[in-house]
Amino acid sequence: MTRTLATGNHVAGYALALAGEANRDARGCCAGAYPITPQTEIIEYLSDFSFSRGRVVLVESEHSAMGVCIGASLAGARAFTASSSNGLAYMTENIFSAGYYRLPIVMMAVNRTLGPPWNIWVDQGDSLMMRDAAWLQFYCDSHQDLLDTTLMAFRVAEDHRVMLPVIVALDGFVTSHTQMVADLPTQEQVDEFLPNCLIPHGLKHAHPTTVGGMTMPNETEHHRFEIQQSMENAISVLEEARNEFEGIFGRRPAGALETFEIEDAETILVACNTMARTLHNVINERRARGEKIGMIRLKMFRPFPREELLKAIGNAKRVGVMDRNHSPGSGGIFWQEIAATLIGRNDVLLQDYLVGLGGGDVTPENVNAIIDDLNRRESASTPEWKDTSV
Which of 38, 170, 231, 381 lies 20 to 30 Å (CA to CA) from residue 154? Predict the structure, then answer.
C-alpha cells in the first residue's frame, strides 16, 4: 500500500488498470476508449499501462467504446471504460444493451452537465439519465472512496448472484482534477480481492450460440424479473464484499449509504458526492450550537437502498434532499426516489432543494440557507431552487 497525492482521474485509472491486470490468468482485460472532458486522463492512464494480457481499443465514438466493452465481456474479458455528459448520451443504446446482456462492465462516469448550452462543469444529469438501464450506480465523495468503490464494483458486478454492469460516478473537476491523498493498493492485494472474471453466458468456440436474439413477450418479462432479482441481491453481495475488502486492505469502504449524527436527529439532510463533504462540516457546526441535525450520504443509487434509508431516517420529522440534478417537469431525481420510499410516512416533511446545477458552487452558505428554510417549514412545497444565481 502506498500513500500518494493524486488526482481523482489518476486514482480511477490506477484502480481500473490493476483490476484489469488481475484477470491476466483468465481472459485478460479490455477497455473501449474515447476521450471527453473531464474524463480523458483516465483513458490516457490506461493507454500508458502495460497490461500482461489486455488491450485499450481506441475508437471513433463513445457508442463504439461501449460496443468494444460488450464484445470483450462476451468473450470473457474484464471490460471497462469511462465517459461523461453527451458522451454518455451518445453511448445510451449500448449502455442499455450491456445491462440487458447481463455483462459485468465497469464504467467511470465523470459527471458533467449535459448540453447544449455547453458546460463542462459538474451536475449528475448525465449518469442519472441512465437510471432505468440495468446498471448498478455508485456515487463517490473522495479519492479514496473512488478507488475503493471501483474495486468493489468489479467484485459485485462479477458475482454470479448479480452479473450486471456498474457505473461509478465522480464529480467532474471537483474530484477528477483536484488532488487528494489516497492509499493505493498493490497489484498483489488486488489479485487477492478480485478472482478471475468468469461469465457463465459468455461466448464459447466449442459451443457457438446467438446472443440477443428475438424473444417472445413472456421471455422478456422473465428476463426483466431476473434482472430485478439480481438488483435485489446486490446490496447483500456488497456487504459481503465490504467484509472481504476490509480483511485485505485494512479499511472498510462505505456501503449503500453513510450516516452522521442521525441517532437523535429531528432534521436530516440527504446528499451525495462532494456536496456531502460540505454538508458534513455544516452539520458539525450546527451540532455544536445544540441543533438536533444529521445527514445521510447516499452512495448507492441503483439499486435504491430503500430499507436502509428508512432505517436511517428513523424518527426524524424533517428531511431535506440536496439534488445536483434536475428532471424537467418534476424536480430532483434523488428526491423522487426518497419520496417513493417514504410513502406511508405522513409524519415526515420531505423537501427537495436543487443546488449546484451546471457546476455552481455548493458553499456552507448555500447549505445553511437550506437548513434554515427546512427548519421554518410547516409543510413541503414544490422543489426549491437554492443556487445563488437563481
Answer: 38
pLDDT at 388 over 80: no
Alpha carbon distance 379, 389 (integer Å): 25
Name the DSSP class of 253: -
| Contacting residues for 338 by C-beta, under 8 A, at least 6 apart | 270, 309, 319, 321, 350
Q: Which fold has domain 257-385?
A: Rossmann fold (3.40.50)
Residue 200 CA to residue 253 CA, distance in Å, equals 28
Residue ranges of the chain that CATH labels 3.40.50.970: 2-249
Class of domain 2-249: alpha beta
Query: Which set of grid coordinates corresponds to residue 91?
Result: 453511448
pTM of the predicted structure, to 2 decimals: 0.97
**CA 45 to CA 184: how far, in whole Å?**
15
**pLDDT of 51-109, one tens digit each?**
999 999 999 999 999 999 999 999 999 999 999 999 999 999 999 999 999 999 999 99
> CB atoms < 10 A from the CB of 246, how many?
12
Distances (CA, A) of 255 to 151, 238, 242, 309, 380: 13, 7, 7, 12, 30
Helix (H) or strand (E) holding 284: helix 274-288
Written as one letter, the residue type at 242 is R
Separation of alpha carbons 131 and 17, rounded Å: 26
Q: Which residue has the cell 481499443?
A: 57
Looking at the chain, which residues constitute the CATH 3.40.50.920 domain(s)?
257-385
33: its cell numbers: 476508449
d(CA 68, CA 53): 16
Q: Is the pLDDT of residue 40 over 80?
A: yes
pLDDT for the residue 390: 47
Please provide residue 136's backbone torsions phi and psi, each rounded to the nearest 5 degrees: -70, 150
Range 129-158 burial, b when 16+ CB lie within 10 A, else e:
bbbebbbbbbbbbbbbbbbbbbbbbbbbbb
Place of cell 447516499: 298
